[in-house]
Write a structure and sequence with these properties.
The chain has 25 helices and 14 strands. It is α/β, with parallel strands linked by helices. Strand 7 and strand 8 form a beta hairpin. The longest helix is centred in the middle third of the chain and has 27 residues. The termini are far apart.
């Protein structure tokens, strides 16, 4: 606190709050002050000269300083930490998602990480008390990457990492995704780890390499014991929450929100996953699917949604490998890594690196029929024993993973068989409609005899009326089509055996899932979804409102090609709708603020435009 007395008044500057106040000197200085009091009737003068100088000195001292802040965390200087956080709060630097205690260094770390890495439990507790969040992830990806992101020289980044974070760690290595708990485990700081765990730090959080904090703890150690205890509690709580969510929101319900049709395929996958999740499956072997069907029919999307459901949208939990990149014999090294002595040995393989990060991931082998037979030999061990040895000789256990293979083998046969099933189902539905009892005839007047009621013919309905009758939500009203055992054994299996050349590979597949062509109702749903997506783009990009009449759905659904699935619908909408919109915009007929109405005439899709100042649509 700095004060000055002049003219009978005292100017007080409180350092802690940077507040300036002027008070009469006689309130605090006794008789000497009263002798110097101004005469009655005169207003006191506020003399701020000395106080202004003091204000400038204290303001300079309490301006937030990044270097001081992180060095204080490094050495455990609690007083300096408090002053820097207060200065950051006074400057209004804590209004975002990360508060003043979570201010990041220019190279990516937080003060809480620095305190944990340097075994400063008192500083960790103080930062947590001041609002630091324990689960923030590290952004430091090594000196070169961090320097490039911050516009620094790599040597400067190295020096700052050592001075303002920790000099005992490899500053060239990447620590992406590390939390303060990872650093506490590596520093073997049991007190810091307990403080973080008590504040709600997640012991199951993974870094960029897929490792938990427990991976870096010494064995045995008090820090490791604390991590193990809390990890078990978190895992039990997570398992209970997942079970409750599965009960309230079954897998079938989730998949049907994103997959159009394919009722039998969804039911088959959900049943197998349910067995595995609830402990009614062989724990010694992973779950393996083979998805068969035409292109663009939902095989890849089903695998993606399965990963999203099981791992809560964690991107590391979905591994996709395009097997068309493994058509040569030597490319098996890309999958599991090159052996010692070969180029790229230290990098490892694409599959082994990903499984090392998440051993319980959903792995998609897209178009597996295009891979070299030697690649399939590697998959035999993976599917049978649930483990894989990489190029470095390291064994990776992945029994909890789910492996999905997609293939276009027998696609034509499955498509034709599916169309036949559709026709048979439609014939049964028509037969049931004809078998319905006729509505009773209206009684005739008493003077005339009542005429017998004639059988009622089934009323013709448009596709849009049928959609309204079925609920309009895209769910198929017809029965789930089931592929017969005879078709599987006599048509599909010989094709698979002829291509893969071995029964042991097919024998390791738990479920072969068949994707059938879309029904008419499912095609209308696909068209509706595609038009809705383009309407959103038109509104967001060009300020144009896009609407359509019901007949447009049927006209665009007629462009469906059974060999290309939903992609043919996408191309049909682009060719017949988007092309016209682009041409109209180029000619100036469609501008921002306009509304466009799509209609169908004689099988053609036509456009009508309503300008912002008009009430009626004008055909183009």
């Amino acid at each position: 606190m700095i004060s000055s007395v002049r003219g009978g008044w005292r100017c007080v500057l409180e350092a802690g709050s940077a507040r300036l106040a002027a008070v009469p000197a006689r309130r605090c200085c006794g008789g000497a002050a009263r002798a110097a009091a101004p005469p009655a009737g005169r207003k006191p003068r506020y003399v701020l000269g000395t106080a202004t100088v003091g204000l400038a000195l204290i303001a300079a001292e309490y301006v937030y300083n990044e270097k001081k802040f992180f060095k204080a965390a490094k050495v455990g200087n609690i007083q300096e930490l408090r002053k820097q956080i207060e200065a950051a709060r006074a400057e209004g630097q804590g209004g975002g998602a990360e508060g003043p205690a979570d201010r990041r260094h220019a190279l990516g770390w937080t003060a809480l990480m620095a305190a944990a890495a340097n075994d400063q439990p008192a500083a960790v507790r103080e930062l947590l008390r001041l609002g630091a969040r324990p689960d923030l992830a590290e952004r430091y990806a090594g000196a070169s990457a961090a320097a490039a992101a911050a516009g620094l020289h790599p040597l400067e980044a190295l020096q700052r990492r050592e001075d303002e974070f920790c000099g005992a760690m490899n500053a060239r290595a990447s620590f992406l995704g590390w939390t303060a708990l990872h650093y506490a485990a590596l520093a073997d700081s049991a007190d810091a780890a307990r403080a973080l765990l008590a504040a709600g730090a997640d012991p199951t959080a993974r870094d960029h390499a897929g490792r938990r904090a427990l991976h870096y703890a010494r064995e045995p150690s008090a820090a490791r014991d604390a991590l193990v205890e809390h990890a078990e509690l978190w895992e039990r709580a997570a398992a209970a929450a997942a079970a409750e969510e599965r009960r309230r929101f079954p897998l079938e319900q989730r998949l049907r929100q994103y997959i159009v049709g394919q009722t039998a395929a969804i039911d088959s996958v959900a049943a197998a996953v349910r067995r595995k999740e609830n402990g009614w499956a062989d724990e010694e072997h992973p779950l393996v699917f083979l998805f068969l069907g035409s292109s663009g029919i939902g095989k890849t999307e089903l695998a993606k949604q399965l990963a999203r459901y099981m791992h809560r949208d964690d991107p590391a939990a979905f591994i996709r490998l395009d097997m068309s990149e493994y058509q040569e014999k030597h490319e098996v090294a890309k999958l599991i890594g090159a052996p010692p002595g070969y180029v790229g040995h230290e990098e490892g393989g694409q599959l082994t690196r990903a499984l090392a990060r998440r051993a319980d991931a959903v792995v998609l082998f897209d178009e597996v029929d295009k891979a070299h037979p030697d690649v399939l030999t590697v998959l035999l061990q993976l599917f049978d024993e649930g483990r894989l040895t990489d190029g470095k000789g390291k064994l990776i256990e992945c029994r909890n993973a789910i492996f999905v293979m997609t293939s276009n083998l027998a696609a034509d046969e499955i498509a034709q068989y599916g169309l036949q099933l559709r026709r048979e189902a439609e014939a049964r539905a028509a037969q049931r409609t004809r078998a319905l009892p006729a509505a009773p005839a209206t009684p005739a007047p008493p003077s005339k005899p009542a005429a017998p009621a004639a059988p009622a013919a089934p009323a013709e309905q448009s596709d849009e009326q049928s959609e309204a009758r079925e609920g309009g939500d895209g769910a198929p009203a017809d029965e789930a089509l089931q592929v017969s055992r005879k078709f599987k054994d006599t048509v599909v299996r010989p094709i698979l055996k002829r291509h893969f050349g071995r029964d042991e590979f097919l024998g390791r597949i738990n479920e072969i899932v068949y994707f059938l062509p879309f029904s008419r109702q499912e095609l209308l749903t696909l068209v509706q979804m595609e038009l809705a997506a383009w309407a959103h783009k038109a509104r967001a990009r060009h300020g144009v409102e896009l609407r359509w009449e019901g007949g447009v759905l049927g006209a665009l659904a007629d462009g469906y090609d059974v060999h290309y699935g939903a992609r043919s619908i996408k191309h049909e909408v682009e060719r017949r709708v988007v092309n016209q919109l682009a041409l109209a915009a180029e000619r100036g007929a469609v501008a921002r603020g306009c509304a466009v109405l799509l209609s169908e005439r004689a099988g053609r899709v036509r456009l009508a435009v309503r300008a912002p100042a008009q009430r009626d649509y004008v055909p183009l």
